[in-house]
Amino acid sequence: MTKIKLYDTTLRDGAQSEGISYSVLDKIRITQELDRLGIHYIEGGWPGSNPKDMEFFLKITRRKLKNSVIVAFGSTRKPHTMASSDNNLRAILKSQVRFATIFGKTWDLHIREVLKTSLEENLNMIRDTISFLVSKGLVVFYDAEHFFDAYRTNRDYSLMCLQTAQEAGAKVVVLCDTNGGTITSEIAKIVKEVKPHIRVSLGIHCHNDAGLAVANSLIAIESGCDMVQGTINGYGERCGNADLIPIIANIKLKLGIDCIDDSRLKELTRVSHFVSEISNMKQRNDQPYVGVSAFAHKGGVHINAVMKNPTTYEHIEPSLVGNRRRILISELAGKSGILVRAKGLELDLTKTDTKTKRILKLIQNLEHQGYHFEAAEASFELLMKKALKKYRRFFELEGFRVVVDKQSDKKITSEAIIKIKVKGVKEHTAAEGDGPVNALDNALRKALKDFYPTLSKMHLSDFKVRVLDEKAGTAARVRVLIQSQDETDTWSTIGVSENIIEASWQALVDSIEYKLLKDKINA
After folding, report:
1. Shortest CA distance to 76 belongs to which of 14, 141, 139?
2. Among positive and negative, which fits the CA dihedral 305, 306, 309, 314?
């Protein structure tokens, strides 16, 4: 099979995901990362839809990309008009791109009830639009919207739409499962039936409404498609698009088909986390291949087997995709888990070492109190280094005060005042926040920013509180889990106390100290 072409639509389809809004700079940074990864086509947006997308195209076309080409997105002309006078098509020409993807209606239901036109006019729209852009020197891809629904209800007409696009000069016709509801076996059947009718390349574009977007994309490739469209981390409208991250890994490692260079495969984890960071979206721990839990082992039996032969519980070597094996620490893991983690941290421990027994007992006691190191690996690493006297603090707390003020019908305000000593210097700062923990975080960062500028690269991405003893009411002990992330990594820390502010402080300090330790900052 020929090399599979990768088509990324994170900047357009992915940006339609709830909670995502990219600036022009965000889009440029993501484009540069996708180019380094080796993505062949990057869909930059719809230049005719908003000024921001047009600004992106005009700026990105002045930058030299090594591996990728930028593609503009648009639709067929309106019914009973001329392509040459269509504002959306003019905007594509103005964007200065050499490649354009045009989507058109394929499903007769949409043509009659949405476009309110005839089946024949829809074919004219496809033909005129593609011919016009090709005559202007553009390479055109045709996205056959709702193709699988169309084929199911009117096979002959849906094929006519593809053939019309092909005759008009489209270099690729893309079969779209726009509603995301087609079953994998049906995708395979339809792609195989369509293939003999099309001379140009076939592409596949799947949505994830039935949870099958990745599987459907892969079966389409096996059935004859040589372009696959998707987004990083599966971002997209409703339930999202096909996730290009596991798609790339599966094409390379499972199907044995070329799509990116072997050397770039190990960038998958970093790119996934980078796009998550830019998108301000929490990274999925259980994301296949690149999630922090993708190669995590908790049970003692699993850990023991993995240490003897990793293939017993791992389907690939984690480093192939830039990830790593994690041994989760809990009372279930025992000494084996501690020894594996110690080795990963380059700490010298043995099973019979009294330090190992002491650390195991400490973990068991802390978990009895409510700590949960399985979910707070960063806090465990700090705990290990402190227990083995391999750690120096980055700052010392002298005291803090948090004030929550509510007056009549006015908005609640929170302010934190903190005193710390950093490298022998006393710092006394105050900051406001959306809540007491946010105010405390802001005050601590304010005190540390001049000493440790790298902290500006991290932020808290998740905050969880759990009551450990409900019967104790408001006096119950609580467990606070904080997830933090920077441009390359995600880590979790923990705090436990009867006071939620104290528990939050513990987790907050661990989060910041882990970041500084990770970046090899001198205390």
Report:
1. 141
2. positive
The structure tokens 């509801």 sit at 181
DSSP 299: S
Confidence of residue 393 (pLDDT cuts 50, 70, 90): confident
- The 10s digit of each residue's pLDDT in 318-333 is 999 999 887 775 544 5
338, burial (CB in 10 Å: exposed 0-12, middle 13-18, buried 19+): buried
Q: Where in the chain do CATH 3.30.160 domains reside? A: 395-451
Helices of type H across 113-232: 119-135, 147-153, 155-168, 184-194, 213-223
CATH of 5-260, one of 3.20.20.70, 3.40.50.300, 1.10.287.3610, 3.30.565.10: 3.20.20.70
Per-residue confidence at 278, pLDDT binned at 50, 70, 90?
A: confident
Q: State pTM to two decimals.
A: 0.72
Tokens matching residue 173: 């016709």
> Strands 296-297 and 227-230: what pairing?
unpaired
Judged by DSSP in three states, 84 sits in helix
Question: Residue 364 and residue 500: Cα distance in Å, rounded?
Answer: 22
For helices 155-168 and 119-135, the axis angle rounded to 10 degrees is: 20
What CATH code would you report for 395-451?
3.30.160
Bridge-based pairing state of the strands 99-105 and 296-297: unpaired
Question: What pLDDT is attached to residue 472?
Answer: 56
CATH 3.20.20.70 residue ranges of the chain are 5-260
Half-sphere exposure of 476 (CA within 13 A, CB side): 14
Q: What is the rounded CA–CA span in Å between residue 225 and residue 306?
A: 37
How is residue 323 written in tokens? Answer: 């990830």
> Which pLDDT does position 287 carry in this prediction?
96
Within 13 Å and on the Cβ side, how many CA atoms surround 192? 9
In angstroms, rounded to a whole number, what is the distance separating the alpha carbons of residues 11 and 41?
Answer: 12
Amino acid at 93: L
CB environment 284-305: b (16+ within 10 A), e (fewer): beebebbbbebbbbbebebbbe
- Residues 220 and 213: their CA atoms lie apart, in Å, by 10
Closest CA to 187 of 205, 199, 201: 205
Phi, psi dihedrals of residue 403, rounded to the nearest 5°:
-115, 125
Alpha carbons 377 and 512: distance in angstroms, whole number: 14
Mean pLDDT calculated for residue range 20-47: 94
Helices (H) and strands (E) in the chain, counts: 18, 16
Half-sphere exposure of 366 (CA within 13 A, CB side): 21
Cα four-point dihedral sign 246, 249, 253, 254: positive
Q: In this predicted structure, which of 152-166, 189-203, 421-435, 476-490 has the lowest mean pLDDT?
A: 476-490
Q: What is the mean pLDDT of residues 202-206?
A: 98
